[in-house]
Amino acid sequence: MKTRQMNPDWIVTARTLNTALPYLQRYSGATVVIKFGGNAMGDQAAMASFARDIVLLQQVGVRPVVVHGGGPMINDMLKRLDIQSEFVRGKRVTDEATVEVVEMVLSGRVNKRIVQAINDEGGRAVGLSGKDANMMVCDPADASLGFVGEPVEVDPTLIRQLHSSNIIPVVAPIGTGRAGETYNVNGDTAAGAIAGGLKADRLLLLTDVAGVKDGEGNVLTQLTAAEVRQLTDDGVIAGGMIPKTETALAAMAAGVRGVVILDGRAPNACLLELFTEHGAGTLIRG
Question: Which CATH number fits domain 28-284: 3.40.50.300, 3.30.540.10, 3.40.350.10, 3.40.1160.10?
Fold first, then answer.
């Protein structure tokens, strides 16, 4: 005769699932775009955890789209190839030689690592770039930056077709120009543009900070667009947080219902944000 003792962890797991039910229902069928980058990309365990979360999102009815960066990997390859890299106002000057390396690293090495990680966790992922099916057409962002692009047209048809086949799109931030040029696009900018094209329910910008902070350093859990502008004017939102909040405002103007800036280093950050009452970062909407 076999006996079984109830493990307290099982009870916690069951209670967590029960509590999450309203949020699972809320996001069933929703399109969620996740910008993935930062330290987690270079850590095998963190990559596997992120991939498992993405597969779980799809399993419960969410339609995830992963858009990734890869700056450290680009820097490493440029160094190995002895190609000098220059930055202007925090953005990489991208000449013809550099953009070839950027495309090779982002569409190749980085993109396929994420795809493989998702597939290893039981998902079905396909790697793309913004050049595929002219998904992301760009104009030059700034003549002084070379082949750095600003998305001006987004066609989400291919992403929707993949979702209809239960495939998770993983998108490298490479765009195409009107004359067939290749453009390097900031990962946050690309994620915002794609989310806008999809009219996504949520855009999650995974970063290396806990969210937008007030003047005392406390994380703000919710902000309106007007409050973001005021905090920026007051100098509270500054530095590297400015382009992220600008991406959030542009995405909402394009039809995204809400944008969350959150710490991608936190375990299960996406699940905490979507399926718990308090979330995991700063939600910007309205």
Answer: 3.40.1160.10
